[in-house]
Known about the structure:
Elements lengths: L9 E4 L5 H12 L3 E6 L3 H11 L8 E4 L5 H9 L6 E4 L14 H29 L2 E6 L12 H21 L4 E8 L8 H4 L2 H9 L9 H12 L10 E4 L6
Parallel strand pairs: 1-2, 1-4, 2-3, 4-5, 5-6, 6-7
Helix pairs in contact: 1-8, 4-5
Protein name: SDR family oxidoreductase
Organism: Sphingobacterium zhuxiongii
Family: Belongs to the short-chain dehydrogenases/reductases (SDR) family.
Amino acid sequence: MDFGNLSNKRAFITGSCEGIGFAIATLLVAMGCEVIIHDKSDEEKCRLAAHKIDPKGSLCREFVVGDLGRMEELNHIQSQLSNVDILVLNASTQSRIDFELLDKAIFDQEVNTNVWSSIALVQRVIPHMKDSKWGRIVTLGSVQEVKPHPKMAIYASMKAATSNLVKNLALQYASLGITVNNVAPGVVATARNIEALSNEEYAATMLQKIPIGSFAKPEDCAGIVAFLVSELGNYITGQTIYCDGGMSL
C-alpha cells in the first residue's frame, strides 16, 4: 500500500491561496489528491494559486470564493461542494484588541468565521463521507487554546471551542470510518504575522517562548495535516496535535 497516495480523493481546503492552507493544498496535490481551493473574496488570487499549486491543472482547477463569516456567502460555498472526502478547515479571522473594547460585531464575526462556518461545512460534507465509509476532517487550531494571547480573547476562546468540537465529532463518526483531528500551530511565518513579527522587540519576545527557537513555516503544519489524512493517520481521531516548537509546554 502506498501510504502517501491520495489519488481518487477529493479535498476542500478553506483559506488555501496563501500561508498554511496553500502549503497543505500543495502537499495534497503532490500526493495525488484533487483539491478545491478557497479565498475570501478574490477569484484571480485563486486562479494564480491554483496554477502555482498545479501548473498542469489536472488536480487543482476548482476554486470557491466567499466570506465564511457572512451567512449568504457561506451558503454559496456550501452549494459549490460535492463528494468531498477530505475537509481542511484552515481559514480563520482574529482581532487584536483590548478586552474592554470588544463589541458584539467583533464577536459575531469571529464566531461565524471561526466556529459556525466549520459546523456548516462539516454538515455539508458528512453525508458523502458516511456513504463512502471514509472521511478526513482536520481543523486548524492554535497554541492559544492553551496559551491565549491577552489581546485576542475571542479568537483564543473560539479555537478552544473548535478543539472541543473535534472531540465531539470524532466520537460521533469514528465507527463510520471518519476521523476528525485538530492541528494547532504556534507562531507561523505567514502574511498574517508579517507586521507583528517585523517588530524586532516583539519577535525576540516571542522567540523566547518557543523552545525550538524559531518560527514555524507553513510546510511544518502541512506535513502533519497530510499525515492525518493519509492511511498513516488511519488510527488517530479526536486529537489536537501542536505544531508550535514546544510553545505549549
